[in-house]
Amino acid sequence: MSRYRRVTERKxxxxxxxxxxxxxxxxxxIDILKTKFPNVEIDVILSKYxxxxxxxxxxxKNKAKYVEIWAVFDKDNSKDFDRRIWYAKSxxxxxxxxxxxxxxxxxxxxxxxxxxxxxxxxKSELTKKLSYVYDTDSRTIRNVSNDIESFTYExxxxxxxxxxxxxxxxxxxxxxxxxxxxxxxxxxxxxxxEKEM
Length: 197
Fold this sequence. Notes:
Blueprint: H1 2-14, E1 17-21, H2 24-35, E2 42-46, H3 52-61, E3 68-74, H4 81-90, E4 94-99, H5 103-107, H6 119-130, H7 138-148, H8 152-170, E5 180-181, H9 183-196
Parallel strand pairs: 1-2, 1-3, 3-4
Antiparallel strand pairs: 4-5
């Protein structure tokens, strides 16, 4: 019995995860998501710089300390989006990216849409769907996270369909996949981590 307990404790230690976020919005959302899975050992940090390049470098820098690392970032105005995603993956870092921004992931909780949308478009649409003004302050993001939670399964389905549709059209060129997100992969991973524990 004590031998079994030691193996279990070792397994829990091995499951330590790091998520590096490019912005405050992403960090708040992931921190809230993390509370839904209390048995998973996850550290969530905000990169010192918001550019995806720094997020990926910070993730790689911490590679030896964690079993699995994710970088969460948006395309925004990135000029080297595809190369940076390739660089992260080639260094064993998983990516939950959004083209153009994480607000697209929030929007998918309400409706399926793959046409190009700007941050301004998404902010306006989210304001309509939420019945309050969407903003990136911490209180609003907490409210949004709670309000969209019950629609997460639908958002995952929509994001998967959209991702496959874009991939069929553009291949491995995430910079051309607008609007698109792989945040659904991270959300699904949370569920798998919970089962593995």
